[in-house]
Design brief:
Layout lengths: L3 H25 L10 H30 L6
């Protein structure tokens, strides 16, 4: 049975690579020979991507902060 750390490494590695692969595919859409887009389209796409990334990072930071909070006990 895998430890939580091992499971995290396995799952997170695969998911990060999946995201990288999809971002590279999105980058293919920048070819003006095949696609028509404007500055506003690009701003909208990356605004949503950055917002989602910030929210996801905050979820991790919130979990780290929970663990570092000290509670009083006798």
């Amino acid at each position: 049975m895998k430890s939580k750390r091992e499971r995290f490494e396995d799952v997170a590695s695969k998911r990060v690579q999946y995201i990288i692969d999809k971002l590279e595919l999105l980058g293919n859409c920048s070819n003006r020979n095949n696609y028509d887009f404007n500055e506003n389209d690009v701003k909208k796409m990356f605004s949503v991507i950055k917002d989602t990334l910030r929210k996801t990072e905050q979820r991790f930071n919130d979990e780290i902060a929970k663990k570092s909070k000290q509670s009083f006990k006798f």
